Amino acid sequence: MLSKKQARAFFLGGTLVTFLIFIGLTIYSFSKGNDQTNRENLTADVVRGKEIWESNNCMGCHTLLGEGAYYAPELTKVVDRLNIRYDGNGEEVIKSILMSPSPWQLNGRKMVAYGMTEQEAGDVIAFFKWIGKIDLNGFDRVISPLAKEKMNK
Amino acid sequence: MKYKSQKVAYWFFALSMLLLVLQIVYGFVMGFARIGFDNLHEFVPFNVARAVHTNLLVVWLLSGFMGAAYYIIPEEAQRELVNVKLAYVQLISLALVGVTAIVGFHFNIWEGRKFLEIPRPLDYLVVVNVLLFLGLILTTLFKGKRQTTTALVLSMGLLFAALLYLPGMIPFDSQVTDSFFRWWVVHLWVEGVWELIMGGILSFLLIKLTGVDREVIEKWLYVIVGLTFLSGVLGTGHHYYYIGVNKIWIIVGGIFSALEPLAFLAMALFAVNMYRKGEKKHPNKLALYWTLGAAITSFVGAGLLGFAHTLPQTNIYTHGTLVTAMHGHLAFWGAYGMIVLAIISYSLPNLTGRKLYDSSRGRMAFWLANIGMLGMTVAFGVAGVAQVYLERKFKMDFMLVQKEIAIHFVVLVLCASIFATGIVLYIIDFYKHGRPTDEALEINE
Ligand code: HEM
Ligand code: HEM
Ligand SMILES: [Fe+2]
User: Fold this and answer.
1) Inter-chain CB proximity A38 and B244 less than 8 Å
2) pLDDT in tens, A128-152
3) Which end of chain B is more exposed for a tag (fewer CB within 10 A), N or C?
4) Is residue B113 a part of any domain in this protein?
5) Listed residue (B59, B105, B53) closest to B416, CA to CA
């Protein structure tokens, strides 16, 4: 029968080994050639966009990269999606939503009225476009409008 | 109770109950918003309600864990807490930091990072607070007469939980890296070090309630926490499948996260077997209900419902849908909510000297809360599966799908009312125990 000492060795040994592998894999996945986070295209606009995204807790209603809340639409491919729906005017529509002084509620659910400046809205769009170009291991095909087009044909 | 200083635990438990009530209130705000009654939008928009709901959850659980530690550590180490005054200072500062953060959320002062919305400056105060807590607990433990495995595992869990808070404070420019390290906090907490805390509390309760030999119980405790880390650390990969990092995580995360339910299965089997084996039948039946309930419900909520969406082939469709919310509720409730209520049910009679061991109100509280939460899980689950099919498989528009599934949120709110009734009864029971008193030192077993 297993003794308490052996049980403790199993705990300590297992923890140490998996933890070291975990650190190793983390370094591996951010090393050159394996990094697919689209880091090379990070611009000042994108970073400012991310700050606006964060300081307003947009993730408290929306998902992005599948993370966040489930109250409002996934925004990973939002520019593409709205371009299809509004004949290439996706960016304009996003701007008007973000700059609107009263809550946007096209589909019944209210969004917070942020009343952003044109510059701020532009930064957020830059952020969305950057997000849209990340290699998501196929997740983008499940949520993107292009997949939808294919389905309908 | 055996040591006067254990009394401080009572106040952590009381704070915990207060915050639980508030968490539920904000849950209802979201539930109603989803069925079209978003009347509070101007003051409490959905994202405020959500941040408050999940942060209060974390704080009431932490306050419960801290109370558990202040109760368990003196008893295990066989000495008084090193400094009781500082423990009260820690309690008050925890409450202040928590309340400040929650109030700030209402004024757009936060970081939009799921579960870690507390802004950076307050993070530092959290760190100071937790350091004070750890200092008190660890010095008590190491100055004590003995260092039991139960006490060591519990303290190790608390210490690692504090250390793992730090990666969440590093700033990143890239959303992907930000998210990557956010999971070091969120995932490695709930599927790692918090399981040590749960295991430590569970083991303490089983020793007290079943009378099974400490050596046997603590041996299995090591096996359980061993399984936890063996699967849970690399299991972090199940959050890395589709957020923009290397494919290696699809394989590693897929395999190891699929093993994670084993730790929860072991926990459930362990609790049930020790109960069967135990000679001593402790009269505190309510504590036993909550203890076994936690072990079993955590297996269902975390183990089974976690497994249901952890394979990459499934997760590509369920990632970021209400299926996740279904699992999140039963997992948090079963594993951490119920273990906190278990230690409270066990320790209250000992702290106050009132042996309300088996009131019918206490039983009703247990059953209503659990039936309500199961109902909520089903409601989230049905809504989630429908969402996956309509939105992800048939490519219907997000908002149209939301209109289709709104009916399930009516069911959610109904079940949430049953749940909330159970919690109210639990708190009435808590209140009826009265205040902790030194007289309880003598009335003990
Ligand atoms: C007590 C333990 C657990 C708790 C409290 C818990 C809680 C949660 C929560 C709150 C989320 C949502 C996180 C977010 O999107 O920010 C989540 C996600 C997830 N959990 Fe757990 N969980 C537990 C255990 C498990 C286990 C054992 C498994 C696997 C077998 C699992 C599998 C998953 C998966 C795959 C996701 C990601 C869902 C998605 O892609 O949207 N969980 N969990
Ligand atoms: C009256 C009871 C409750 C109601 C009506 C309720 C409702 C909700 C709603 C509507 C959400 C947001 C889902 C979304 O983003 O659309 C949510 C999130 C959440 N709630 Fe509750 N809740 C209640 C109680 C609880 C309890 C008792 C717990 C824990 C023990 C809990 C844990 C969570 C967690 C972890 C999340 C985040 C889930 C995720 O992101 O996947 N809730 N809740
Ligand atoms: Fe996880």
Assistant:
1) yes
2) 999 999 999 999 989 876 665 555 4
3) C
4) yes
5) B53
Determine contact, residues B444/B48, Cβ cutoff 8 Å: no
* CB half-sphere exposure, A78, CA atoms < 13 A: 25
**Quick check: is B4 in a domain?**
yes
Contact B254, B238 (CB under 8 A): yes
Q: What is the pLDDT of residue A146?
A: 64
* DSSP output for B245-304: S-THHHHHHHHHHHHTHHHHHHHHHHHHHHHHH-S---S-HHHHHHHHHHHHHHIIIIII
Give contacts of B51 with chain A, Cβ < 8 Å.
57, 60
Ligand 3 center–CA A129 separation, angstroms: 28
**Contact status of B408 with chain A (Cβ, < 8 Å):** no
CATH superfamily of domain region A43-152: Cytochrome c-like domain (1.10.760.10)
List the domain range (segments joined by +) for residue B13: 1-147
Residue type, B141: L
Extents of the domains making up chain A:
1-35, 43-152
In a domain, B162, yes or no: no
| Facing residue for B175 by CB, picked from A7, A65, A112 | A65
Residues of chain A neighbouring B220 (CB-CB closer than 8 A): 7
Q: Is A68 helix (H, G, I), strand (E, B) or coil?
A: strand
**CA gap B376, B30 in Å, rounded:** 13
Half-sphere exposure of A143 (CA within 13 A, CB side): 28
Cα–Cα distance measured from residue B317 to residue B392, given in angstroms and rounded to the nearest whole number = 6
Domain membership flag for residue B114: yes
Rounded to 10 degrees, what is the CA torsion of B418, B419, B425, B431? -150
Q: Does B119 touch chain A (CB under 8 A)?
A: no
- Sign of the C-alpha dihedral, residues B395, B396, B402, B406? negative
Of A59, A135, A151, the CB nearest to B244: A135
Token pair of B49 as six digits: 């309600």
Instruction: Return the bridge partners of A64, or none.
Output: A67
Q: pLDDT tens digits for A69-122?
A: 999 999 999 999 999 999 999 999 999 999 999 999 888 899 999 999 999 999
Low-confidence ranges of chain B (pLDDT < 70): 443-445
Specify the pTM: 0.97
| Overall domain count for chain B | 1
Cα B123 to Cα B116: distance, rounded to the nearest angstrom: 9
Residues of A in contact with B237 (CB under 8 A): 25
Give the pLDDT of residue A153. Answer: 43
Q: pLDDT by residue (tens digit) across A16-40?
A: 999 999 999 999 999 999 999 999 9
